[in-house]
Amino acid sequence: MDTDTIILQLITHIREIVNVHESDIDFITSKLEIVQLKKKDFLLREGQVSRHMRFIAQGSLFAYHTDEKGKENITQLGIENWWVNDLYSYLSELPSRMFIRSNEDTTIIQISKNNLELLYKEVPTISEFWRLKMQNAYVTLQERTFEHSRVDAYTKYRTFVSTYRNIEQRFPQYMIASYLGITVEYLSYLRKKHLSDVS
Predict the structure, then answer these.
(1) Minimal CA–CA distance to 63: which of 50, 72, 76?
(2) Within 34-152, where are the H helices?
(3) Signal peptide: which range, if any (predicted)?
(4) What is the pTM of this model?
(5) What total of structural domains would you count in the chain?
């Protein structure tokens, strides 16, 4: 994709939520940076401070942390038109406790915290956009926390595939299993059960 198409994709995404005036587009665009990642490249490493908001224009990313045994635990998955970040690190300005890595060749649009603060002042609709995005992120986190402790694995899987219809085919099974907190073998069983139930 060329730069203009990539930027238009983000502007279209923003306009789905708030009304951005045409006169503000150039100013917004001037604050954006496009980053190209090859498959398995790191966007963020544990210990780094996250200083950007990041929009996936093309490709996919996953975020994970490692436990005391060195096992990777997937906490986020992301595809086109999603935002992926360590919000804890971004908001607190403390070192990240996770890694963010590309699952495919990926194109990111990112904006630094300083530039975003400038946009908040100069383009108030961007402030409104992020207020709404943060609210949605909080609701999603609450729902996931609730599901994790109170819902059985099959219900978690069904919710996952119905909510994120285009994502399961984009990531290897071990990542989906880790995200759901189950083994790969159990994920395979749940997939077969689900296919049987909907057929």
Answers:
(1) 76
(2) 87-92, 113-122, 124-150
(3) none
(4) 0.90
(5) 1
